[in-house]
Design a protein that fits this description.
The chain is α/β, with parallel strands linked by helices. It is built from 14 helices and 20 strands. The chain has three domains: about 160 residues, FAD/NAD(P)-binding domain; about 110 residues, Orthogonal Bundle (Guanine Nucleotide Dissociation Inhibitor, domain 1); about 100 residues, Polyamine Oxidase, Chain A, domain 2 (Alpha-Beta Complex). It has a seven-stranded mixed beta sheet with strand order 8-7-16-17-18-15-19. Strands 10-2-1-14-20 form a five-stranded parallel beta sheet, with helices on one face. A three-stranded antiparallel beta sheet has the order 5-9-6, with no helix packed on it. The protein is globular, with a radius of gyration of 22 Å. The protein starts with a strand and ends with a helix.
């Protein structure tokens, strides 16, 4: 008896998750990926002997689907999850402040830290609590105004928004609160901070992403019996009677079900022709860039795993020093979300802007020699999480039976995160499995 065949187009977190789910149901699965490695938007590359990640991807304790995927593929040994939420916050000329959760239940776990938070006035600190309680009651389906406008209407000053709320909103939504959808912003704070005290504990990737996602995912897929084809560009999915044909540059694959797990900018051109008219709306989701600066100093300048910056161009800075370095050098990565301004700057302009800014918040960087400076840009890192985006995000299920969509841009309820990508893969696999069960 011929096994039911499924093709997954796209080897990012969403595609890998979907392929593993389909293989678990004994389907004959082929995954195709245009790049030479798996990982999608979370990938690494080597430059002058140093492994660089395209971005400093973080996750939270509440990101259960992504954490389960890491366990499944054997990548969890390369990540580190805080025992208790702790964000060092650095500002020029001031001692570090620490946003650390207490043992109080949610939503009061950050109350003691906020009362001591020196980057806001006492009045601003007291006002944060009232706004947080009100935000806990906001319907995440609200998509009619910005988070910034809502916060201002609830007594939050521009300084409070910049020095506190955007510490969470900007890296998770990839746009500042001033532009972000209220519903998605409310979801982030409710899910990460307001419902469970431990949900917002931060996980970071200590090893390069290729060692945490890319290579482990390839091994896990092959062990599950998935046929993985790298450097395979899907050009079109075509209906072929009751089945599908996935056309590549040199050959085609037949399938009973297809999961399309590619960025929204590519999806419309690949999906079956009868869906393309509706897919034109995907372009309206837009895109928001992320820029990372990779800097190697001749000495140790950063005392934390990561830290946030306020009153500074620096948003977040991470210690990415390889464990084998024992000569005093330190590799730090600066991650800039919603980086429309930075994405248009030349490398020398970024260097001139950010090295002095780092020296202002990291005093030991002032006398340090910069041994290496590199820039990575993801111009279309995520969709724009602005008002109106909710209505544009499609569900996994399409009107073509057996054809499903996956990706962090689909209607997961989450912003464009690793967790959203993993959840979308599960949802798309369920659609394909339901269809094939009836064949």
């Amino acid at each position: 008896m011929t096994r039911t065949r499924a093709v997954v187009v796209g080897g990012g977190v969403a595609g890998v998750t979907a392929a593993l789910d389909l293989a678990d149901r004994a389907l004959d699965v082929t995954l195709v990926e245009v790049r030479p490695q798996l990982g999608g938007a979370a990938y690494s590359f080597e430059r002058d002997g140093l492994a660089l990640d395209n971005g400093q991807h973080v996750f939270l304790r509440c990101c259960t689907a992504y954490r389960a995927l890491l366990e499944r593929i054997g990548g969890s040994g390369g990540v580190e999850l805080q025992r208790r939420l702790e964000i060092p916050v650095l500002a020029p000329g001031q001692p570090p402040a620490l946003l650390r959760r207490s043992r109080l239940p949610a939503p009061g776990q950050l109350g003691p830290a906020l009362l001591r938070y020196g980057h806001l006035s006492l009045r601003e600190r007291l006002g944060v609590g009232r706004a947080a309680l009100a935000l806990a009651r906001v319907d995440p389906a609200r998509d009619d105004e910005t988070l910034g406008n809502w916060l201002a209407a609830h007594g939050q000053s521009p300084r409070a928004i910049a020095n506190l709320w955007d510490l969470i909103a900007l890296p998770t939504l990839n746009v500042p609160a001033a532009k972000a959808s209220l519903g998605l912003g409310a979801f982030v704070f409710q899910e990460g901070l307001l419902r469970s005290a431990a949900a917002g504990d931060i996980g970071i990737h200590r090893a390069p992403l290729v060692e945490i996602i890319g290579a482990p995912a390839l091994r896990a897929l092959e062990q599950a019996g998935v046929d993985v084809r790298l450097r395979w560009r899907a050009q079109e999915v075509e209906r072929d009677g009751d089945r599908f044909a996935v056309h590549g540059e040199r050959d085609s694959l037949a399938a009973d079900a297809v999961v399309l797990a590619v960025p929204h900018q590519r999806a419309a051109a690949i999906m079956p022709s009868e869906l393309r008219a509706g897919a034109a709306a995907f372009d309206a989701l837009g895109s928001s860039p992320i820029v990372n600066l990779h800097i190697v100093y001749d000495r140790h300048v950063l005392d934390h795993r990561f830290a946030a910056g306020v009153d500074s161009p620096v948003q977040y800075v991470f210690d990415r020093t390889p464990p084998e370095w024992d000569d005093g050098r330190q590799y730090v990565a600066v991650s800039q979300s919603g980086a429309e301004f930075e994405a248009a700057m030349r490398s020398e302009e970024l260097r001139a802007r950010y090295l002095p800014a780092l020296a202002e918040i990291l005093p030991r960087a002032r006398g340090a020699e910069v041994l290496r400076f590199a820039v990575t840009r993801e111009h279309a890192a995520t969709f724009r999480a602005v008002p109106g985006a909710r209505a544009l995000r499609p569900s996994a299920r399409t009107s073509v039976a057996g054809f499903a969509l996956a990706g962090a841009w689909t209607a997961t309820g989450w912003p464009a995160t690793l967790e959203g990508a993993a959840r979308s893969g599960h949802a798309a696999a369920r659609v394909a499995i339901e269809h094939t069960a009836g064949l």
